[in-house]
Amino acid sequence: MTDEVVAADVTAQEVAHEQEFVDTVYRRLSEATRNAEALAREGHGRARLGHEGGLVERDAMVFQAAKRIATLNAAHEGLVFGRLDLKDPTEQPRYIGRIGLRDEHRDTLLIDWRAPAAAVFYQATAAEPQGVVRRRVLRCSGKVVVGIEDDLLDAETGSDLPVVGEGALIAQLSRARDRSMHSIVATIQAQQDKAIRAPAKGVVEISGGPGTGKTVVALHRAAYLLYTDRARYERGGVLVVGPSGVFMRYIERVLPSLGETAVALRSLGEVVDGIRADRHDDPAVAAVKGSSRMAEVVRRACRQAVPGAPREFRYFYRDDTLVLDSRELSRIRRGLLGQGRRNRQVGRVASALVDALWRQVRGERAQERSKEEFTDTLLGDDRFLLFVRDWWPALDATEVLPWLRDPEFLGVVAEGVLTPAEIQTVARGWGDDLSVEDVALVDEVRYQIGDPPARTDDEEADPLAGLVDANMPELTTVTDREFSGPRTAGRTDDDGYAHVLVDEAQDLTPMQWRMVGRRGAAATWTVVGDPAQSSWPHPEESRQAKDDALFRIGPLRRPRHRFHLGTNYRNSAEIYRYAAAYAERVGLSADLPDAVRSTGADPVEVVVDVLEDGVREAVDELLGVVDGTVAVVVPAARRQEVTRWVGDWPEVADALAGGDAARLAVLGGLDTKGLEFDGIVVVEPGEIQQESPTGRATLYVVLTRATQRLVTVRS
């Protein structure tokens, strides 16, 4: 028999043996699911007890059962993926999986990958085997074992254990991609595992060049934290913030596949509740809107009189004509703002105006009446209440931001903060809808004015109801001098998250750091980024804003833990050499990790007379060469044009179909952040480089997205 036949027989025997164990685990999983379903039925039955205690028990039991069922269902695919054979002959092999399971005798059947007992699966190496002789990764399709990959870590033990396959990591890296990120739970490397299992307290910063697994490591860290302190992180919640909706859809399956669902995934355009934006401003506009100086512009705007509000109020009382002119109203406005955020003062406005009017009462007939009677008269007069409502309305943040669209208003509040050229840039840069950059400004407004007060059903029916807070004390008289300096508004009423994970952190503007920081004032943090890939043109300003958000917001003194990943698992060595050479040529100070595999396929540069024909040929060729996904990456100005071309090509119709399951996508350079594809066609790379001040970094990002093939096409 040949060596190949012998190896095939050994592999078949080993796969069959592992299949027996996997079958046992799935039988136990089915039993656990039936038990959870029975608990849910029992919980529903508690509602028939006829008292409140039964209802409470029902809710608790059904909730816990539902969580357990969701966890079991999520872990169904790829449930068992690892095995450790140990040097100690008395120890049985340890099997590692997405969740932990016990057998009917309560003995450990499957170890959760996050458990301390599983750590050696990731940390053992040939240099330091830590008592492990053989590490095995099981590749499964559903419940069926389709392959195994072994690493012999301790050859000196003299074990007769067979070793099968080329190694799990290389086998995994060579597979075709689809439109979703998948967990790497079976192939986490020792360097990555240290970041995943880092101390929970404080800030964990994960840096590294393209393809080093920063994103997926951070997501596995979130799953690890939920496992180690579930009560805290499920109660407070975990927020994952990424650069775009495309990116969030790409990563959305990772945590559920690890059995974790208590996580909110938000792109930067979705961080503020109730708002969704995916349009980016022109780079020049975005550079101004994202600057930390906009916080002062917004603060000033929120202290101005409401545009269009009445500027005067006249009231005849007995023998007196009482007048609140613009100067007096400005004084009252400053006094109210000195007491707290704008929306918090809605119930105090009427009282402040009544006080100001009462101080003007001079006539004998008027003074015969008490202030209480005067107050009752005003509060019973709809003219006064309408003035109160119109002069100091309860405001939503999305109503205030449009004030800045008025060039004259913007010029007043931005004077001395922005340059005249920057003011003009912003004034011309407003779109018909909110941009991603606008969302941080909306949050800043909300931070400054507070949320509108909740209205009761009676107040909803009567627009003049709720304008007076009978329990609110009178305002003290405050002079103009006391309000000459800037004031810091209090925090918004957001419920802070227990953990915040920020990916592509190098791209966050200072205003976006302020927005995200408010969501994690008392949180632990995971921050992921690579400065060389930054699309923000002022890195020092951004670093300062990041440090303010992480270390100066909230009551905690956070320790800092830094981890650097230095191995590129995404790109072939040929593709990354090409991208690294570009980075060095254009002067990017890039972190250049080592690529671990080679395909023999160098990147191809194509120069054509007719751009559409060249792109069509490149796309058609890549779709035939690679089994997975292909992206056509274009300058922002050409995206609609190229998308139209691709849609008109019948030969790629199948590759375009299927929505998120499609093999082919047309994307702008910034849209590729954090993504990866088997093949990439880069259209007019020079235009991508020139389309913004950080275009060199954007093109570097684009060149590092391909795992197998890279083609550039220019006319």
UniProtKB/TrEMBL annotation:
Molecular function GO labels: 3'-5' DNA helicase activity; ATP binding; DNA binding; hydrolase activity
Cellular component terms per the entry's GO annotation: cytosol
Positions annotated to bind ATP: G208, G209, P210, G211, T212, G213, K214, T215
PROSITE patterns hit by this protein: UVRD_HELICASE_ATP_BIND
Residues annotated as domain UvrD-like helicase ATP-binding: 187-572
Domain of life, per lineage: Bacteria
Pfam families: AAA_19
Record has Cell inner membrane as a keyword: no
An example Gene Ontology biological process: recombinational repair
Claim: ATP-binding is one of the keywords in the record: yes
Coiled coil: none
Keyword annotations from UniProtKB, A to Z: ATP-binding, Helicase, Hydrolase, Nucleotide-binding
PANTHER family the record matches: DNA 3'-5' HELICASE, UVRD / RECB / PCRA DNA HELICASE FAMILY MEMBER
Name of the protein in its database record: Putative helicase protein
